[in-house]
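Input structure tokens:
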């Protein structure tokens, strides 16, 4: 074996030939300072539709991003062919910092987090008042996920022609969550879309709900020029059929906001949620936690919130609502 001394000449150093004839590999990556800004509209089997200015282009994730993936709502940097012409492909070289991330897990004991959408600022929780029956535990879970992600929740109650919203709202009135009630006739004549659209102005709103509640029907009414397939409720199981298979971001017709239609969910795991963060959604109760013991669950004998409410600083129903949401992780959605 040849050994080199301290003063070797460059000609003495062996260099492995590059058989492919291309440039040698390097750890230095380009900064792509001239990359265009884009918004991810949808993701389908590794191909992403990205809005760049007023053009929709097809892109794929660049290798340099590693395991970091882009999701609907992400703001990204794109290079390559940005013409939007057929059979062209661009590359996403950077995912910009996110202002919010809505996550869920398959179950409460599943540590794998799934990012639903990025950069939304409102979560519209769509539930039917009948056909299928409301699932309050799933609503509670979506509320916890919204509060944890820093999103403003909005309840959208559909099919009020089949059942009244009064009973369900008795459980959520103390939370102070805004809500809109719709029915099929109002969806047909546009009145329901107008009322919902008022709540969406100037926001990026993600729509979630289990299958069959009329979520995609409502999105179609909000954005009539982009119709998505809708399904029906199985009369035997009482569950809806999945028709929306991927999330899709759509601009409202007047350009005042965005809606993101997501696939129907049958579970909303909260393994990723730290219960200590849920209290931030209750500013009237949060000051009362200063006297709580360390690591207080806010649902135990020594919790200071009981005395805080007894002294008249907050409505007892608000404390009940907080504890109901905190206990949501211990219950299944169908309970």
């Amino acid at each position: 074996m040849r050994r080199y001394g301290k003063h070797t000449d460059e000609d003495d150093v062996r260099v492995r030939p590059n058989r492919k004839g291309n440039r040698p590999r390097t750890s230095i990556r380009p900064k792509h300072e001239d990359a265009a800004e884009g918004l991810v509209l949808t993701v389908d089997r590794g191909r992403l539709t990205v809005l760049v200015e007023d053009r929709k282009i097809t892109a794929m994730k660049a290798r340099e991003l590693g395991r970091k993936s882009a999701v609907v709502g992400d703001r990204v940097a794109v290079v390559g062919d940005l013409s939007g012409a057929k059979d062209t492909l661009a590359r996403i070289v950077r995912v910009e910092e996110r202002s919010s991330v809505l996550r869920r897990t398959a179950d409460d004991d599943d540590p794998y987090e799934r990012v639903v959408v990025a950069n939304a600022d409102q979560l519209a929780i769509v539930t039917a008042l009948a056909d299928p029956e409301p699932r309050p535990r799933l609503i509670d879970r979506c509320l916890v996920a919204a509060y944890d992600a820093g999103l403003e929740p909005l309840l959208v109650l559909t099919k009020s022609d089949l059942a009244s919203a009064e009973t369900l709202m008795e459980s959520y009135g103390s939370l102070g969550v805004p809500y809109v009630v719709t029915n099929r006739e109002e969806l047909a004549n546009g009145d329901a879309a107008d009322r919902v659209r008022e709540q969406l102005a100037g926001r990026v709103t993600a729509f979630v709900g289990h299958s069959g509640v009329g979520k995609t029907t409502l999105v179609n009414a909000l954005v009539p020029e982009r119709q998505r397939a809708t399904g029906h409720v199985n009369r035997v199981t009482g569950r809806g059929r999945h028709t929306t298979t991927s999330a899709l971001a759509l601009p409202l017709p007047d350009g005042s906001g965005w809606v993101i239609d997501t696939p129907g969910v049958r579970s909303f795991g909260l393994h990723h949620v730290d219960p200590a963060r849920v209290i931030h959604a209750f500013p009237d109760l949060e000051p009362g936690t200063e006297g709580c013991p360390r690591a207080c669950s806010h649902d135990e004998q020594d919790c200071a919130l009981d005395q805080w409410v007894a002294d008249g600083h907050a409505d007892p129903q608000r404390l009940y609502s907080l504890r109901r949401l905190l206990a949501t992780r211990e219950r299944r959605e169908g309970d």
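The first strand starts at residue 36 and ends at 44. The CA atoms of residues 187 and 193 lie 6 Å apart.
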